[in-house]
């Protein structure tokens, strides 16, 4: 972030003020500012996460796949489940796993329960890289170290409310 020019004002707050002035308070200037803030924070966090896990030869998407596989009971999942649980298109899941396989961090094998399917399994080196990257993310507070435990609870509850309303998952 040191190369980024920082503004001397909050452009999202200013946009909300201009929004309200142009279209009035019924035009949802606060909703626009909230949504835009979420998107900006997501950009900042992804940048932070990619920098942290990048030191371990990963992107955040590949790190997430390793964590998913490590969390599975057998350390492996069918590719269809990888895409579903990462909430990405099957082609993206395949690309992620292919890259991890090329790095020796996962293995791919035919799924004995599905003649056409593939299983992705985390390797021992994949576990080691995932653990090291996780330790670095934890040390950095996942980019949210400025929040208290109560604020984390509040933020999670608010964002979960949006996810439930948008039917991101069944509750």
Task: Give a summary of the structure in a few sentences.
This protein has 171 residues and is mainly alpha-helical. The chain is built from seven helices and three strands. It is elongated, with a radius of gyration of 20 Å.
Summary tags:
mainly alpha, Arc Repressor Mutant, subunit A, elongated, 11% strand
The mean pLDDT is 93
Q: How many domains make up the 3D coordinates?
A: 3
CATH structural architecture of the largest domain:
Orthogonal Bundle
What's the level 1 CATH class of the largest domain? Mainly Alpha
| Poorly predicted sequence stretches spanning 5 or more consecutive residues | none
How many angstroms separate the termini?
Answer: 38 Å
Strand order in the largest sheet: 1-3-2
Please summarize the sheet with the most strands.
3 strands, antiparallel
Kindly provide the radius of gyration, computed on alpha-carbon positions and rounded to a whole number of angstroms: 20 Å
Total helical elements: 7
Number of strands: 3
- Elements, N to C (H/E): HHHEHHEEHH
Range of helix content: 55-70%
Q: What is the general shape?
A: elongated
Strand content: 5-15%
CATH superfamily of the largest domain: Winged helix-like DNA-binding domain superfamily/Winged helix DNA-binding domain
SS content category:
mainly alpha
What's the CATH topology name of the largest domain? Arc Repressor Mutant, subunit A
